[in-house]
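Let's practice the habit of predicting before peeking. Look at the sequence and jot down your guess about where helices and strands might fall. Then scroll down.
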Amino acid sequence: MTIFDDLRASHAVQRTLIRRMTHARVSPDNRRDAFLALANELDAHATAEERHFYVPLLMDDAGLAVTRQALADHHRAMTLVDELRGVDPTTDRFGELAKQLSSEVRDHLDEEEHGTFQLAGKLLSKSRQRQLAIEYRAEYARRGAPYAG
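Done guessing? Here is the structure:
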């Protein structure tokens, strides 16, 4: 397995939790639970990804721009997570912020999967991709992500 396999697995979890959090027919308690699970997943994923995917890309001039963009995306998403923490899931405000977070995360995942991964595949050797996967998984698990694979 390579770092790309692990990142895609986390992306799938994020997409599932986003659907649960934003689905209109889900109860407020289930929306709140999905949000809390998503917040935990995003924290674990972003930390592990920044340390074990983006830092290596940052070391190559060709990886500077995508790394800067990704870090900005992570910051925007985590700012929305922090804002959502104190909002009642029965309110319209929760729904608005949840949709903003959903859009931010989905756009970021799509950019990674359809651009960044291709660039990283050229910059990182296969053996480095496998080593980064091991490091990513360990960090992801340390951060307490319940979905660590």
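How did you do? The chain has a mean pLDDT of 94.
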